[in-house]
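Re: your question from the hallway

Yes, I did run it. Sequences:
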Amino acid sequence: MNTIRLILIAIVALTSACVTVKPQERSVLADPLMQFEGDPHAAAQLRHALENREGAYGGSSAVGGGCGCN
Amino acid sequence: MQLIRFATRVGASRVAALLGAGIAAALVAVAAPVRAEVVTFDTTHTLFHESPTRTKMTVYTPGADLEVAPTDWLRVRAGWEADIVSGASVAVKAGPAYANTHPGADVVTTASVHDVRNQARGGFTLKKENVELTGGYAYSTENDYKSNSFNVAARTDTYEHNSQFEISYARNFDRVCDRVQSANDSPARFRALEDSSGCFTKSNPLRTTRDIGVDGFQGTWSQAWTPIFVTQVVYTAQVNSGFQSNPYRSVILGEGLKAQEHEPDNRFREAVALRGNLFLRPLKAAVRISLRGYYDSWNVKSGTAEAELEKYLGESFRVMARGRYYRQSGAIFWSDDYSGGDRPLGPKGQYWTGDRELSPFSSWLVGVRAMYAVRPATRIFGIMESFRAGVSGDMLALSYDEFTLGGQRIGNARAYILGLTVSALF
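Structure:
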């Protein structure tokens, strides 16, 4: 429990100290090149192909239940 | 059953009905008073091909999605995707120890695979100020596998949109076709499913269904640190429960003993990923780095490192190159030969599998993508706000540490992946 509290405090401290990007400075951050999942459908299909050949799953930006298939 | 591995025909009518309902809902939403940008249409196509030793697989995956935003606070979407699979996969797996005691015999067999999976999906997102709530549903069907998947997510922005937090939960209610086994038999005597005929019907008394439940949790923190640098941390946990073996595949366990694959019913999986995107102003390019660690209760551990470099060539055209390295250990019960031999061969307890995805291996992926995106001042053809089209090509090379087919190493374990995506905003 203490560990979770420490992690939450660290996240809040880190994020609150970083309100350094003003709205007028966000043009680059809004660029398609800076998106984590800029083309979600294509990314999902590539991920689908890879996950069918690997034992690992997860860690992507997408929401979903994944597959219980074998 | 999720495609690339198995075979089917389709319950297309139900999928068509679901898809039709989703599109109808989207069109009703369009009919409401509209803003300048209300409809996004995406279509994505992927062609996958591999032909390593003794097996081959070709998968074509078309998909189409429509999203409508009738108001500022609501987005509704519907989509369809299919996997069309053909090839040959391993039906009976044996290892080098068994092959050595049966010289001249072909101890590994393969079976042809022809399969179609259809998936219909839909969802909505509600937005108020800095909070978004999302709900979604997907139904997919194959001859031997059916899936109902629900997902919900909540997302919020804080600190002038510099921090984003998202939590999500997804639940699958899946069913897989299996062969009826004799009540007096133990798993070491179970026989594999011969084919998908009679699955999910009562026409074949030798067919039954097994349940699979999937619970997935995910938390995401995205952070803008500077005007050109953002990071993301993702934690994923998933609990799989139920029948997780390949019902078609058998494993040679010993002399005269061939049994259906037998994997544990429960699997807990978790992954942590860290990503960073950095914009390089002088190059008009971005570097994207991703690292992922994964662990599960079957003792599969893996690490993934990915890097992408994407650069503008002019205002509307951009190119991207990517590389990915993946390495995993084998499941604790995985063995290349359960019938005997020196370590690491030999039996591994009460479970057995012929799944190369559970063996220790590594892989490399390299690829390129070209994208053309245009958003002119006036609408294209009078109706389109923007248009985007992209093509990609990737090569995946796999290197198996221990997996063999009757002692024969897997050569030419390379896969080729071609992608096409087109998107328009109306």
